[in-house]
Amino acid sequence: MRRAAVAFCATAMAVSLAACGSAKESGDKSDTEKTGSKKGDDITVGLLLPENQTARYEKFDKPIIEKQISELTNGKGEVEYLNAKQDATLQSQQIDTMITKKVDVLILDAVDYKAVAGGVKKAKDAGIPVVAYDRLAEGPIDAYTSFDNTEVGRTQGKALLKAMGGDAKPSSKIVMMNGAITDPNAKQFKDGATEVLKGKVNIAKSYDTKEWKPENANSNMEGAISAIGKDQIKGVYSANDGMAGGIITALKGAGLKKLPPVTGQDAELAGVQRIVTGDQYMSVFKSYPQEAETVAKMAVSIAQTGKVDSSLKTSTVDSGTTKGVPAVIVPVVSLTQDNIKDTVIKEGYYTLDEICTAKYKAACDKIGLK
Fold first, then answer.
1. Closest Cα partner for 301 from 43, 75, 7?
2. Are 237 and 196 spatial neighbours (Cβ–Cβ below 8 Å)?
3. Distance (Å, rounded) from C-alpha 64 to C-alpha 82?
């Protein structure tokens, strides 16, 4: 899965992503440079991922990070891995475990970006630098890499309007199925999408979906159908593919033969297959290999030199507690029937055979996916 080289397209997207709330001057460059013990290749990297329900973490993030760290350290670097299974309390305990094991640097994808701040400070106080991964955790983090999350929402919103065609008008009712409020990315997705959709359509119902779970999205959608009327829903903004699956199940369960367009994100295999059949209009393709390789480079650099390699710093971000965090922001692509070959297949996410199984063969043939 490893690309030959990480193409840092994000240079052109060097934007400063400011989180809400007041910031304290606790993460300036001088602090970052003091962090780390300046080791050689014999380092231990702690890796804390938030959950295992979304396919990406076990399929892409974990193995790519492990492989990249091994290559960057001539096979001497080790990775200590734990998954929080969507439990913020468990993740806090896992941070304590990493501190006890005296890892040299910690890669953290937070379950709850605010609740984790205390654990980040404990790690920092123990001399362990923390790299926030995919979600901008609060506390004195040393570096961050993710995607332009507000742009993800804009991309989804624009795609939904395009798919709605003549129904994209102020009187047309849509449903917004946003992610969990404990995830800072969810707010940014929501903000970006709302920026595009507000005034163009009528956001009749909007939900913040607990834990991003498809079953919760399904329940929310059933409520929206009951409140709005199944034939009155002209489009559905879904923040990710998993929830899109639950939404589409609810729409079909209500007896809709022609589904309104539904968005998604993450390019999960099931989501791509729904795009092939037309049940789901789009997903957002994000290069997890590029993001994972980038965080590995950041972590190794901080562990070995005490600071982020200047060649990796393409922008800075502010969290609610820390200003000027060195960051690499990775670009995103709208994934539809038209560019499946140029995205998930070209990048090696899935093979044609994995997508076009017997169940989906006729649909693949219909759209020219051969």
1. 43
2. no
3. 15
